[in-house]
Specification:
By secondary structure, the chain is of the alpha+beta class. It has two domains: about 100 residues, no CATH class; about 60 residues, no CATH class. The chain contains six helices and three strands. It has a three-stranded antiparallel sheet with strand order 1-3-2, with no helix packed on it. The longest helix has 17 residues.
């Protein structure tokens, strides 16, 4: 199994392989280990592969063939459905804290703030306008048990994960 510099870095800085090995297996008698499934999905995401079918193709005869070997998309889906999300989320949080501590997530455009969108493009919704770039909409919400209509201000993230927001806070 050949390892890319990216994986060597993850192991050196975060002891990543050991942390992945410590994740519990959600299946009874798996043909492919959770580590192999996790590696396929993780490296597929790092390579910006958009679907499990594409990950399957890369594992069969592409960039992931030597590293992971053949694994089917339905095997990946089955393993992911049976995996408890809490340990994976905890691993994600540990890595994110380490990246933040090491200054990897620091950027000039956000004045030291970290802005991230996970499975979505809308950030920073509030009932207080924070800048001229705020978008707005009318929303109904409960205040002291009564339904009320107010203007909500929000921002949408573009393709590069940046926003025009000049606020010094995140919602």
């Amino acid at each position: 199994m050949s390892r890319h510099r990216f994986e060597v870095y993850l192991d050196k800085v975060f002891d990543f392989s050991e942390r992945v090995n410590a994740l519990p297996e959600g299946r009874q008698s798996p043909r492919h280990s959770w580590r192999q499934v996790f590696a396929a999905v993780f490296l597929g995401a790092a390579m910006q592969i958009r679907s499990l079918l594409q990950i399957e193709a890369e594992c069969r005869s592409g960039a992931l063939a030597k590293r992971i070997g053949p694994i089917r998309d339905d095997t990946i889906g089955y393993a992911l459905q049976r995996q408890s999300p809490e340990p994976v989320f905890a691993l994600h949080c540990e890595i994110a804290r380490g990246l933040k501590r090491n200054g990897v997530l620091r950027s000039d455009w956000s004045r030291g703030l970290i802005v991230a969108a996970v499975d979505g493009i809308e950030i920073c919704s509030s009932f207080v306008r924070c800048c001229d770039a705020c978008m707005q909409r009318e929303v109904q919400h409960k205040v002291d048990g009564a339904l009320r209509t107010d203007i909500q201000y929000y921002h949408r993230i573009g393709k590069m994960g940046r926003t025009k927001c000049t606020a010094r806070w995140l919602c």
